[in-house]
Every structure is written in C-alpha cells, then in structure tokens.
Amino acid sequence: MFSKLFAESGLSLDRLKTLLEVGVAGSIVKAADGDPVRQSQYSRQIKELEDFFRIKLVERQGKGMRLTANGRELTRISRFFMLGLSNFQRGCLAEEQTFRIGASASFIPRFLLPVLSPSKKPGATYATEAVNDAEIERRLHDLTLDFGIVRRPALSRPLQSKFLGSWRLELWMPKALGLTEAAARQRFHAQELPLALAASELDGLDLPLPPNYPAQLTCDSFLQARAALDEQELAALIPDFLTPNHPSRAFARVRMPNLDSRRHELYLAWNPRLLRLNPHAGRRRDLLAGLLSKRMAE
C-alpha cells in the first residue's frame, strides 16, 4: 500500500519536523537559533524533502522565506500526523496533556483563568495565549491551538463553535472630570471627551462610534483602558464585565442608547480534526464550554 512512498530515501520524521519548525519560525536562521551548523542541516533536510516530492516547499520573501502552497499543505499533513503520534505516546505513558487556548487579553484573566483552577481541570494542564480572532482562526486550522475564544460563530470550514455568552460595551468616566452625564455624552459625540480606546479589541466590532475618534490614549486591550480609567483622568469604553469597583464613589456610567443596546457574543471554537486525533479533547471541550458559560452568566 505504501511501497512507492518508501521506494527512495529522503522522507523521515526528522525532516518533516524541521519543515514544521522552519514554517513556524519564518526562516531557517530563526529556526536554527542562528547556529550555522543547524542552519546547514535544516537547509539540507528541506532540500531533501523537495527532491523527494519533486516540488518547492519554501521560497524567498525579502530577506526571509515563506512556505509555498505545497509547503503549507505538507506542514498541515505533518502536524496532523505528529500530533496523532504524540497523543498516542502520551496515552502509553499515562501523561497529562496540555491544551492550548487562545483568547483576548481581557477575556483570559476575567473568565478563562478562574475556570482553569486545578480542582476544575483534573487530568490535564492548560496554556493560554492572548491573540486576536484572526490569529485564533488561523492557528485552529494549523492545530497549533486546541481551542479559541472568538467573537463570531461564522468561521471558515471545518472549524466549529459553541455559544458561551454575551457582553455589552459601556462608556465610563471619572467624576474628577467634573462633567454631568449629559455633558459627557455631548462631548463624546463632538469627539471632545478625553478618552482611552482599546483599539485592538474594538477592531471588528459593529459599534455606533464616531469615525477616527481622536483618543488621548490608544491601547491594546480593554484591561489597559480600564487601568487608564482608574487613574481618573480619562473616560474609557470598557466591557460590562470590567465595571469599576465601587463606581458611585469615583466613576459614573455615561448611558449611550445606541451603544448600550448592542450585545456582543463570545464562542468557544475548535477544529473537529482535533477530536479525531485526540478523543479526550471532546470531553475537555464540553467541560470548558460548560464552565465558561456558567462564569459568563454570573
């Protein structure tokens, strides 16, 4: 059945592992950590794979390199195969598995970390990464993430998702600004309210906001916007799950009907190929979905 595949030399697990490492690193130099001996070895191993399959697997891009379409397909097949072997080995050795979860920087500490306590995750360990939706989707396809928390259910095939809950974006201001709610709302619409905006996490949300609002502080996450609000010099747009502590003392919410009426959803996403490789992942997915749904409903 596989006689042609092994009729000549050039194909090996070690060579496929090198291709995976180079693809992730983006260049042979980075994959080899600058070691000239390893660079030469990696270049030779990739050339041997290209000779074996009679195709180009990598191509130059500026000063670096990138995988060709054939290279990306071979890495996908190789990763799928090696994940299967790795899962089999862990099962034979009765080792715990580490599940990799991607989510936004604000979601991880508020919802994800509390449900990953040792008492709620027997038999497994977790690794979390702060990444955006586009990166989560790409890495679920590549199987370099096991699960992801995303804001939309419409993912490219074959990815699947399960609804977890919803949240609302709110405008909060420090009372130290000396503004009434009506005055703050008016200044916001005039783009004159001193504001902290989490540009990265606002990107892609359907929001009734003035275009190109001249924020006094542009930051990466809602957590950073909340930290700016806590300094009591800037207003901030933050999710309702990051409401300031004791808001009546130092902060006031600025009610915005067009903003307050919009709910934003969160979903647990995964690649069904993962479940075929690792049956335990299905139970872990269901456990995570249940715990996260409950946490978001609190």
Question: How would you describe this protein?
Answer:
The protein has 298 residues and is α/β, with parallel strands linked by helices. It has three domains: 13-75, Winged helix-like DNA-binding domain superfamily/Winged helix DNA-binding domain (Arc Repressor Mutant, subunit A, Orthogonal Bundle), CATH 1.10.10; 96-166 and 265-297, Periplasmic binding protein-like II (D-Maltodextrin-Binding Protein, domain 2), CATH 3.40.190; 169-205 and 213-261, D-Maltodextrin-Binding Protein, domain 2 (3-Layer(aba) Sandwich), CATH 3.40.190.10. It has 13 helices and twelve strands. The protein has helices spanning 13-25, 28-31, 36-53, 69-93, 107-115, 133-142, 181-189, 199-202, 222-230, 247-250, 257-260, 272-277, 280-297, and strands spanning 58-61, 64-67, 97-103, 124-130, 147-150, 160-167, 169-174, 195-198, 217-219, 235-239, 251-254, 264-270. The strands form three sheets. The protein has a five-stranded mixed beta sheet, sandwiched between helices. Strands 9-8-10-7-11 form a five-stranded mixed beta sheet, sandwiched between helices. Helix 5 links the parallel strand 3 (97-103) and strand 4. Helix 1 crosses helix 4 and helix 5 (107-115) crosses helix 13 (280-297). The N and C termini lie far apart (56 Å). The mean pLDDT is 88.
